[in-house]
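User: My instructor asked us to take a sequence, write out its structure as tokens, and then describe one feature of it. I'm not sure where to start. Here is the sequence I was given:
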Amino acid sequence: MRILVTGSTQGIGKAIAAAFVKGGHEVIVHCSKDIEKVEKIKKELGAFAAVTADLSDMTQTRGLYNKTGPVDCLILNASVQVKQSWQEITEEALDNQINVNIKSTLVLMQAYYPAMKEKGFGRIVTIGSVNQHRCHPMLSIYSATKCAVMRLVKNIAEEAAPYGVTVNNVSPGAIATPRNADVFNDVKLRAAVEATIPMGRFGTPEECAGIVEFLCGPSGGYITGADICVDGGLGL
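Assistant: Let's start with the prediction itself. The structure tokens for your sequence are:
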């Protein structure tokens, strides 16, 4: 299969790309602007191709399809997270999160779905967040964008199902990624977070990648419109 993973130069996205490469698939890795960075990741992983597109810019987002052509699996991992209280959130931060997290998701689904529908096969997986299910005082806007994407997933999944296209969401919890490095690398902060997780530890990017692989593989073919939490119970 040919697979595009957005935001795949680090963290969960990179782990997803690596897993699919290991599985023998043609993987297209992506980042926002730095072509040298994404080319380096392509070489490191042995990926099929490397592309850039700033997903806060809808012109560039729409142009991504022209760079990759149709794919069998579209993994929408790229996102922006700004930690601010809802009373302090700036218009710039609000627009950036809405553009990258919601608008680009819809635009890319619109671009890649028609070829999947025509072929009679396709897999679309969005990467959400445990914050869809729990409150965080500094992530109200980020959480709202992820909830919006989940509603897109459910609505589009129903329409796409008769054509062999599944649409699902994976919601990671506290994962040991560069985004969470400040907390993970601080002994006290890490302990405080782990105390709220029933399984008592941070997850790994590879544990998220495994679920995405499953949803895109033969065993996941009868699952659509689902939200699968990979959070050690944090969202309970």
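For the description part of your assignment, you could build on this observation: The chain has eight helices and seven strands. Try explaining in your own words what that tells you about the chain.
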